[in-house]
Predict the 3D structure of the following.
Amino acid sequence: MAITTPSQPPLVDPAELLADPYAVYARLREAGPVHRITGTDGLPAWLVTRYGDVRQALADPRLSLDKRNAKPGGYHGLALPPALDANLLNMDPPDHTRIRGLVSRAFTPRRVARLREPIMRTAGSLLDAMEPHGRADLIASYAAPLPITVICDLLGVAPHDRHDFRSWTDTLIAPDPARPERAKEAVRSMLAFFTQLIGDKRAAPADDLLSALIAVRDDEDRLSEDELVSLAFLILFAGYENTVHLIGNATLALLSRPDQLSALRADPGLLGGAVEELARYDGPVPLAIRRFPTEDITIGGVAIPAGETVLLSLAAAHRDPHRFTEPDRLDLGRDATGHLALGHGIHYCLGAPLARLETEVALAALLDRFPRLALDVAPDEVRWRPSMRSRGLLELPVRF
């Protein structure tokens, strides 16, 4: 990713951005509110860095998620087939409103609260399996299998059908430029999986979210077939991917800051607010989904033409000292209200209540089970996923 200001062309090393994104974003935020960049696809875009501008832009109806509003040749995203691409991350009202309304009832705080006990049981089972070994990769053993179990149970995906979602999602989020065929293979595998799954559910409906969505498609005709498949894909993909990294990043942050970990152990009542602060401090999504102005607009005093790609840096916004005092310091007693890790406006994360609950339960169960939990490597030796759009650990070695 090459970064320039409107008046000068300083280059940012992509390796530096991957290794220490917050330091890079701090320099950019201080240099100006909006920067002209060359994105990972090699095409120009605009990067917004300051909290006030990012928050306002997230809710600006003139910034479209629909790729049809990109200027010709101005955006090259991951090529998905229509059956996976017709999802909420590519839609504006009225289609966005219609589809979000169909599934939002499954993620109300009251409905999600009923999942607490099943999530606790799943967390306990995973910790039971880890405990005899004394050490583990917390991502592979805990942070990854917990949310995939929860979201698959919600959708109604049988245990024997739970394929290697981590491999597929890793490939799609951080594709290997040297092996572009792997991303295409992952897309084909996911499409085949969801097509088969929906066919099986049609033949044998059950009391689960996917069966309910199929009924909406078949009986009420409020979803197209592509929208149905894409919605199932998005719920599973986003419900798994972001929660894995939220749990992993939060655990690393706590284990790297013994004072905050001790404070949380001394007062478990801090946990609800702690999850908000941990999401602000090192959330799983550094950049919001790209947007395209439907008309010429101005952000932070910078004019941006219609159809150009706009990237909103949540990572930069969360470390903006004009919004959060001492933003580079983890403070579990902080009021982190207003963080943008789960979005803002009409595209606020549909699964936010579930992500919060899973992270809260995961951390509480982990810290309760292992009072001597510690990193098994130095904090600077952990390996991060090589992605600018997803902030997550490849592994998290711990001992207990």
User: Anything to note?
Assistant: Residues 169 and 237 are 7 Å apart (CA to CA).
